[in-house]
Design brief:
The complex is a heterodimer of chains A (about 110) and B (about 280). Chain A has about 110 residues and is an all-alpha fold. Chain A has five helices and no strands. In chain B, helix 1 crosses helix 12. The chains are: A mainly alpha (about 110), B mainly alpha (about 280).
């Protein structure tokens, strides 16, 4: 049976490389299909834009790609949690607390509302 | 966009060669020399630090140079600290020009601390007894094969009562500024918690995956991310870091390292001046 650290390394390797490819693809898709991106980008560089929200369908493509890469670490932790419980229960309990906190942040329960 | 990618690529190469990491250079350079809003820059800096940390974990956990269980214990402190740091950071920047100036000023001062910590002499093989209650309770006695010595090295963390509060501070700084934190984690792991230098360096690179993931989601939910900025810069820095690792084998590292430190000092001074200017003090 594989140990938790090696299992985590293998899972994150697959997920992070897949996520990076998806990110690059999402960037190309949005640039190609939304010509306003360059104007928007100029506004970001000149400091005129301080926040961003998706407006059309195409805007959600890079957003979901970022959601995916931001979920790589918690996803991998979920998968290795059983192995971690077999190895050392106190550490596994800490990992569970980390996961719960991450899930709360991901769901927006722990966040700033403006 | 091409310009940003090239800049990120250079930062990735330089950060790796200098041993500071791209995530540490990106935020100060962008905040010091561009007009991009501090929240967008810090979210991008966090993304770079987070993704780089995940990639470092792939190698270091597999080779067992970074202790996975210790990283999880560290993350249980780093994560809430980084989340609090990111929330405070967003609130401060929301104070307007004065708040943004304060962020730049504090980051400029932090850069000087980074330079000092980078210059501190580390210990290659600190002596640590693996018989403490903390080590036994969490199963933190590790062994890895050190190729340069061709022998098995046993190691374990000591003084958690001193190390964990320091980690909280590091997590807060990382979340607040959107900064990588190897510069602070290496001395904490090596000099305070007694890990061998190689293990401390590897652990520091793999430590921020969970903490910066949490902090980044806070920025995401606040709408403080711009996709093209995050994607272009992350891909540039990660690609640059890979190139830097290859150049590292051939380059005159000492000269480049001092050059980067000189740039960081200049960047720090510039951030302090700009911050004080925005706050209306000078």
């Amino acid at each position: 049976m594989r140990e938790a650290d090696r299992q985590y390394a293998e899972i994150t390797k697959i997920l992070i490389y897949a996520a990076l490819v998806i990110l690059a693809a999402a960037l190309v898709i949005r640039i190609t299909l939304n010509p306003e991106v360059f104007t928007e980008f100029k506004n970001v560089i000149s400091g005129e834009l301080d926040h961003w929200k998706p407006e059309g369908f195409i805007d959600y493509v890079p957003l979901y790609a970022i959601y995916f890469i931001n979920s790589v670490a918690p996803l991998a932790l979920v998968i290795v949690l059983p192995a971690l419980y077999r190895e050392n229960v106190p550490t596994a309990l800490l990992a569970t607390i980390i996961l719960v906190l991450l899930i709360l942040v991901i769901l927006g329960v722990v966040s700033i509302r403006e | 966009m091409v310009g940003l990618f090239v800049l990120a690529l250079i930062i990735g190469v330089a950060g790796t060669i200098a041993g500071v990491g791209g995530g540490v250079l990106f935020t100060p350079v962008m905040l010091g020399f561009t007009d991009v809003h501090p929240d967008l820059v810090r979210a991008t800096g966090l993304a770079i630090a987070c993704y780089s940390s995940i990639m470092a974990g792939v190698i270091f956990f597999k080779e067992r140079i970074a202790p996975f269980r210790l990283i999880l214990i560290a993350s249980s402190v780093l994560l809430p600290a980084a989340i609090i740091g990111s929330m405070v950071g967003i609130h401060v920047a929301a104070l307007g020009k004065w708040g943004q100036g304060l962020v730049r000023l504090l980051l400029g001062l932090t850069i000087f601390i980074v330079v000092v910590l980078l210059s501190i002499k580390k210990v290659d093989w600190p002596t640590s007894r693996c018989s403490g209650g903390f080590v036994k309770f969490f199963g933190l006695r590790y062994i890895y094969h050190e190729k340069t010595l061709n022998k098995e090295i046993e190691y374990c963390p000591i003084r958690p009562y001193a190390g964990l509060p320091l980690l909280f501070l590091v997590g807060f700084v990382s979340g607040f500024f959107g900064l990588g934190a190897a510069w602070a984690l290496i001395p904490t792991y090596n000099l305070v918690m007694g890990l061998p230098l190689k293990v401390a360096a590897a652990s520091s690179k793999a430590s921020l995956a969970f903490a910066d993931t949490g902090a980044l989601w806070v920025y995401m939910h606040s709408g403080k991310v711009y996709p093209e900025l995050i994607i272009t810069a992350s891909l540039g820095v990660i690609l640059g870091a890979n190139m830097g690792a290859k150049i590292l084998l051939k380059a005159r590292v000492a000269i480049i390292r001092w050059l980067i430190i000189a740039i960081m000092i200049f960047n720090g001074i510039q951030l302090v001046i700009r911050g004080l200017g925005e706050m209306g003090i000078i």
